[in-house]
Design goal:
The chain is of the alpha+beta class and about 300 residues long. It contains 10 helices and 7 strands. Helix 1 runs antiparallel to helix 2, helix 5 packs antiparallel against helix 6 and helix 6 packs parallel to helix 8.
């Protein structure tokens, strides 16, 4: 028991040290980005985390104070970030982004990627982070996460239902499906899937008839262009003066034009059986534990 407590104590100390380092890096980036209030909060957090490594009670007290402070100063933090984003958006239209502005936005792309992973959206997080370095025009991943979307399952189910009765060994090329999300709704569809694939998403593949009662086996390939649009405003809130604020993705488009970010096509591969049970329940929205926790936290903070 004593040994286990020591191991847990060391693990907690390491976690705090890593948290302090992450908070310090975040604070440095926020200084560059131009949000002094948020930068101060991150740097103070980094300074307070390290001394807490040896005191368990102080850790819990600091965690409680940190959560309370985040809620208490949420509106101030929102104003700090919203004002800066609106300022950058105005100057982007005039093509007057400075080197510091670009460096801050490059960091924001990385922060959004890391935040997306923590929030339970690992696919769009990986796509976002991959924009930061040059690479091949097509980058491939293997995952069936797209099956978490009712929209994807419905389109795929209809395509498979239209396949004719065929003898064993038959191979059929599926017609390419175009799947798009005109609006985002976390209640009706998977935001995890939509955020990663809505550019739009083109889904195709090859179905082969097998023996042993397995029916069709389908090898699927889905593609989506990963690039920021010239003009797309994602509203995130309203400032005290009533002015809406949010993320103008055209800021990152400006970085793409300057060669700081590198668009590409994401290609996703996975294989399913034609009688996959998920196809029989097209209305179900699949969400990971992290994604559910994120939306609960979002609801509390809003």
């Amino acid at each position: 028991m004593d040994r286990l407590q020591k191991v847990l104590g060391h693990a907690g100390a390491v976690a705090l040290a890593l948290g302090a380092a992450a908070a310090a890096l975040l604070g440095i980036w926020l200084c560059v980005f131009g949000t002094p209030l948020l930068a101060s909060a991150a740097l103070v957090s980094a300074a307070l985390l390290l001394p807490l490594r040896r005191c368990r009670r102080a850790r819990f007290a600091a965690l409680g104070l940190g959560l309370a402070g985040s809620v208490a100063f949420a509106s101030s933090f929102e104003r700090d970030l919203g004002t800066r984003l609106l300022e950058l958006a105005r100057r982007k239209d005039a093509a007057t982004l400075t080197f510091r502005d670009r460096l801050g936005l490059y960091g924001l792309n990385a922060v959004m990627g890391a935040g997306g992973w923590l929030a339970g959206f690992p696919e769009v997080a990986g796509e976002t982070l991959a924009l930061a370095w040059p690479g091949p025009p097509v980058r491939t991943w293997s995952s069936d996460f797209a099956m978490g979307s009712p929209r994807v399952r419905s389109a795929l189910g209809k395509a498979l239902a239209a396949l004719p009765p065929s003898p064993e060994g038959t191979e059929v090329e599926l017609a390419t499906l175009r799947i798009a999300w005109p609006t985002y709704s976390r209640d009706e569809d998977s935001m995890r899937v939509a955020l990663a694939l809505n550019s739009p998403f083109f889904l195709g593949g090859r179905a082969r008839r097998t023996g042993q009662g397995r029916g069709w086996v389908v090898d699927l390939t889905g593609t989506a262009v990963v690039a920021y649009p010239h003009r797309f405003f994602l509203p995130l809130g309203v400032l005290p003066d009533g002015q809406p604020w949010g993320l103008d993705e055209g800021l990152f488009w400006a970085l793409q034009r300057a060669g700081w970010l590198h668009p590409y096509t994401a290609e996703w591969h996975w294989t399913i059986d034609g009688d996959d049970a998920r196809l029989a329940d097209p209305a179900h929205v699949e969400r990971s534990l992290r994604e559910r926790l994120f939306w609960e936290l979002w609801r509390l903070l809003r």
